[in-house]
What we know:
The chain has helices at residues 15-22, 24-41, 73-81, 109-125, 136-157, 195-204, 208-223, 237-241, 245-255, 270-274, 276-288, 305-311, 320-324, 332-345, 358-367, 383-390; strands spanning 4-13, 47-52, 55-62, 84-86, 89-91, 94-102, 131-133, 162-170, 176-186, 192-193, 230-234, 263-268, 292-298, 315-318, 350-352, 371-372. With 394 residues, the protein is of the alpha/beta class. The strands form three sheets. An eight-stranded mixed β-barrel has the order 8-9-11-12-13-14-15-16, surrounded by five helices. Strand 13, helix 12 (305-311) and strand 14 form a beta-alpha-beta unit. The termini are far apart. One calcium ion binds next to strand 13.
Amino acid sequence: SGKQVKLHFIDLDGFKAVNDAWGHAVGDALIVAVAHRLRDALPNDAFAARLGGDEFAVVTVDEPDAELVPSFGGRLQDALASLFEIDGRSIEIGCSIGVAVSEHGVVQTSELMRRADIALYRAKDLGRGITIDFDDSFDVDALQQAELENELRATLLTGGISVMFQPLIDARSGAVTGVEALARWRKEDGVAIPPDIFIPLAERAGMIDLLGMQVLRTSLNAAAAWPSLSLGVNISPLQLKNPRFVEQVEEATKAADFDPRRLIVEVTESVLISNPEQARRAIDGLKKIGVKVALDDFGSGYASIGSLRRFGFDRMKVDRSLVAALEVDQNAGAVLQATVALANALQIPVTAEGIETERQATVVRLSGCDELQGYLFSRPVSADEVTALYCGAE
Ligand code: C2E
Ligand code: CA
Ligand code: CA
């Protein structure tokens, strides 16, 4: 008909939590209630469907010159914004929406769905609860991502990820007592890609197990020559999902002839929230073989006091943002102090990271941190530098 077709993909935010908390019967009732609200919010000639799970789609058809008609994203979001009352429970739920347009109806169905899907993915990525319209630039981004992914895969096959080590300082003596291993990737064209980019990429592409084990093996081999230092290695939450993870860590320490008691695995609190059972099993397993476990980026998220106790962490690392805030925020010192006091009350020693100034070092020392890390002491350095600077005598 030459008309303008708009496809909205709608994905509920927080639906899984509802299912987990109250069971599938409540989840089902919620889906039905959502469907009613969507239908009520739409004009008569719109078409709505449930795609499966907590995903819906809405198609609207407008006159060809209907540029001016805004997409229904905002209206749909408003429709779901007020509380749902189900079996006497008040449930709050939101949604993310991806929109794709076929002007004059020329875009093929499958292509339109692909675009709406990519837009929805964006909406979720940007923090949920929003509507995103597909834009051609998304495809360019996706292509670059795919290329980067291929390059990373090739790099992993040749063991091309290297590791730098950042010294950890004893707060009292000022001596270097350990190092944290940090993954580095320099592409063949010489461009360095930061871990904040390639770690999430490896996670999305199913390569994190491989990457994580390579970093671990490389670090263990290097640190085997530093008997006086502890070794911290970052582990992605996804690695803990691998049922063989603990076994693989044990094999790696044996292969490198590395005392597992010198190894500290650093995990972030997202693990504890998304899948506490798995985290529990993996953490218990690691502790059983003598490996210590540290909670990384503490204070940046939502770990509860309860979970801190339950998981039996050997150490906490307060998030860099808490230390950085000391320079700008009046309350930051009190927040930092309270955070460290909480950990200390649970008898968990605390590392402060991201220390760049003497003043920050003084404040975190006074707050009760027993270990310090940051550019003030040293940037991450190569294995050779660690040997030369801190292990020369051995
Ligand atoms: P992280 O575990 O919090 O590591 C500390 C980060 O802070 C490192 O960034 C380090 O270079 C940086 N840093 C240290 N001191 C300072 C300072 O004084 N000031 C500032 N501004 N930054 C400082 P990097 O190496 O870019 O790593 C970023 C993140 O990537 C790490 O955060 C970690 O979450 C992740 N990562 C790095 N290597 C690995 C790895 O092998 N596996 C996994 N799963 N994640 C890794
Ligand atoms: Ca870390
Ligand atoms: Ca950290």
